């Protein structure tokens, strides 16, 4: 059995890192004021579905029915014999002994129904759920509970059907929804549920959990290895135990060290990352590129590398607020966004090193500008004026990139969010039409908003010196080619600097 299954919490007391939520839920159980609909939000692996199962189990636990009978009709007071006792989680935990709890643990409870909205996202599935919930009473416990995982995956029509059920709750029903993308949940649903946001626990909490599970499983880990695993889990208890499950098979005859973890998962030593940052910020960029190439050859994950570089720079910035650290963070953050789209995963990082160099070295920056504006290599202007009329001419790719950057910078003054969106778009000019290519329909819809389109037309017309038509188009292949070419030009410019 996988470790994350084996050590999945079965009671509220076993849930780690979500005390703010557990306290509210157990108090609701204590006062017999369980709500009819909950929404659990947060990144994956934090325990949303686990807490949903525990809550459903506690509500239907036969021991809880004994507790709840001690309340008045309004559930506001307990019997005098326990009126002055402090509130504890244990008083309202699932008993783990009754038929309701045991069947819930086996996954065979008829009162707890789990639905994966990613696989059952249509209106027909939700209508079927409505019919089941309306005419199906609980079998053993108090409430028929529906746990809907990844609820954001439902279609608009399915959400509307679900809304009908939630806004007119029946006494015997409870809905618990979980999502990793709360921004996709309609406001009409949000206004009818109690929302709880699960937080990523600190690394120390995950480290303690890994350490405890490792001891239980007789897995020998040194403290540095535990720290690396905890950091690699990125706040997810499930991922932490999955990583532990994977690494435990590597060295059964001795203690697992941080070196074993680093080699197994394609990571880089913190000391090497520190060395890399020092090389970059002190101007030794040739050596920094050599270190990057060694990491690439060793299979170090580029995303992990950039994340750790940024964390390292943030710590340096706290201790010494130098401009080079701030600029490095900004440039690396942009590079990280480009890794997933780059045909060569390390190329954005290498380009970032060159950009940091030019931003910190005005002489190098000046040399890049000279290369870019060399009249022998490319046309100086994007348009040519003849008889006081502007005629758009085919521009070289590098000059067009420069013009596009200027357009984005001008847009940024009036609408920063629009300029950020344009960073992932590619321009194309044909005759009297300027087309903005994008990868996604969502981006195109935003660009096509009247206020955004008007601003784009004004700025582009002003920049090109002619009133032209501005259009948007979804063309992922064009965008991919555009950014690949752009990166190649940056590499050539960077190579010129080091000649």
Question: Key terms for this structure?
Answer:
flat; Rossmann fold; 10 strands; Helicase, Ruva Protein, domain 3; 4 domains; 499 residues; 3-stranded mixed β-sheet; alpha/beta; 5-stranded parallel β-sheet; Zinc Finger, Delta Prime, domain 3
3D architecture notes:
The chain is of the alpha/beta class. The protein has 4 domains: 3-79 and 87-197, Rossmann fold, CATH 3.40.50.300; 203-264, Helicase, Ruva Protein, domain 3; 271-360, Zinc Finger, Delta Prime, domain 3; 383-497, DnaA, N-terminal domain (GMP Synthetase, Chain A, domain 3), CATH 3.30.300.180. 54% of the residues lie in helices and 10% in strands. It is built from 23 helices and 10 strands. The strands form 3 sheets. Strands 2-3-4-1-5 form a 5-stranded parallel beta sheet, covered by helices on one side. A hairpin with a 2-residue loop joins strand 6 and strand 7 (389-392). The radius of gyration is 29 Å and the shape is flat. It starts with a helix and ends with a helix. The model is unreliable at 69-89, 362-372 and 375-395 (pLDDT under 50). One of its GO terms (biological process) is DNA-templated DNA replication. It catalyses: DNA(n) + a 2'-deoxyribonucleoside 5'-triphosphate = DNA(n+1) + diphosphate. GO terms for molecular function: ATP binding; DNA binding; DNA-directed DNA polymerase activity; metal ion binding. It holds the Pfam family DNA_pol3_a_NII. Residues 34-202 form the AAA+ ATPase domain.
What does this entry show, briefly?
The chain has 499 residues and is of the alpha/beta class.
Q: Helical residue percent? A: 40-55%
Question: Counting H and I runs of at least 4 residues, what is the number of helices?
Answer: 23
Kindly provide the radius of gyration, computed on alpha-carbon positions and rounded to a whole number of angstroms: 29 Å
Instruction: Look at the structure and give the mean pLDDT.
Output: 80
In percent, how much strand structure appears in the residues? Answer: 5-15%
Mind summarizing the main beta sheet? 5 strands, parallel
Order the strands across the largest sheet as they lie in space: 2-3-4-1-5
- Structural class, please? alpha/beta
CATH topology of the largest domain: Rossmann fold
> Assembly state here?
single chain
Task: Report the CATH architecture of the largest domain.
Answer: 3-Layer(aba) Sandwich
Which CATH first-tier class of the largest domain would you pick?
A: Alpha Beta
**Count of individual domains:** 4
Overall number of strands: 10
GO molecular function: ATP binding; DNA binding; DNA-directed DNA polymerase activity; metal ion binding
GO biological process, one term: DNA-templated DNA replication
GO cellular component, one term: DNA polymerase III complex
Family: Belongs to the DnaX/STICHEL family.
């Amino acid at each position: 059995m996988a470790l994350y299954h084996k050590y999945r919490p079965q009671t509220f007391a076993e849930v780690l890192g979500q005390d703010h939520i557990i306290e509210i839920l157990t108090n609701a159980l204590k006062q017999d004021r369980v709500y009819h609909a909950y929404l659990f939000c947060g990144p994956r692996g934090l325990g949303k579905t686990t807490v949903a199962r525990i809550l459903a189990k506690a509500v239907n636990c036969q021991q809880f029915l004994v507790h709840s009978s001690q309340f008045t009709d309004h559930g506001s007071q307990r019997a005098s014999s326990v009126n002055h006792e402090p509130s504890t989680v244990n008083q309202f935990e699932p008993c783990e002994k009754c038929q309701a709890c045991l069947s819930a643990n086996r996954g065979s409870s008829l009162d707890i129904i789990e639905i994966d909205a990613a696989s059952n996202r249509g209106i027909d599935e939700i209508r079927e759920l409505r019919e089941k919930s309306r005419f199906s009473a609980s079998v053993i416990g108090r409430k028929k509970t529906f746990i809907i995982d990844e609820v954001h995956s439902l279609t608009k029509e399915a959400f509307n059907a679900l809304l009908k059920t939630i806004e007119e709750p029946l006494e015997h029903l409870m809905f618990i929804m979980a999502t990793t993308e709360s921004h996709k949940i309609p406001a009409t649903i949000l206004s009818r549920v109690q929302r709880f946001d699960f937080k990523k626990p600190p690394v120390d909490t995950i480290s303690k959990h890994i350490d405890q599970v490792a001891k239980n499983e007789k897995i020998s880990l040194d403290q540095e290895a535990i720290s690396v695993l905890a950091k690699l889990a990125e706040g997810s208890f499930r991922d932490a135990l999955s990583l532990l499950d994977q690494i435990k098979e590597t060295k059964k005859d001795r203690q697992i060290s941080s070196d074993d973890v680093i080699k197994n998962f394609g990571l880089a030593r913190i000391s090497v990352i520190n060395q890399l940052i020092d090389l970059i910020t002190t101007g030794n960029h040739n050596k920094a590129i050599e270190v990057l190439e060694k990491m690439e050859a060793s299979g170090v994950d580029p995303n992990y590398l950039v994340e750790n570089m940024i964390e390292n720079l943030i710590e340096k910035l706290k201790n010494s607020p130098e401009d080079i650290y701030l600029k490095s963070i900004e440039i690396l953050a942009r590079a990280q966004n480009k890794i997933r789209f780059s045909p060569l995963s390390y190329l954005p990082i290498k380009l970032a090193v060159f950009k940091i160099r030019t931003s910190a070295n005005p002489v190098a920056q000046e040399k890049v500008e000279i290369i870019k504006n060399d009249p022998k290599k490319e046309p100086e202007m994007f348009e040519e004026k003849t008889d006081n009329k502007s005629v758009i001419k085919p521009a070289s790719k590098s000059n067009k990139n420069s013009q596009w950057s200027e357009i984005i910078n001008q847009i940024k003054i009036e609408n920063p969010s629009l300029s950020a969106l344009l960073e992932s778009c590619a321009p194309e000019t044909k005759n009297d039409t300027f087309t903005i290519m994008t990868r996604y329909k969502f981006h195109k819809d935003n660009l096509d908003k009247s206020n955004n389109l008007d601003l784009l037309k004004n700025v582009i017309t002003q920049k090109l010196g002619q009133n032209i038509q501005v259009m948007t188009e979804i063309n992922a292949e064009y965008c991919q080619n555009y950014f690949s070419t752009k990166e190649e030009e940056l590499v050539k410019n960077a190579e010129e600097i080091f000649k």
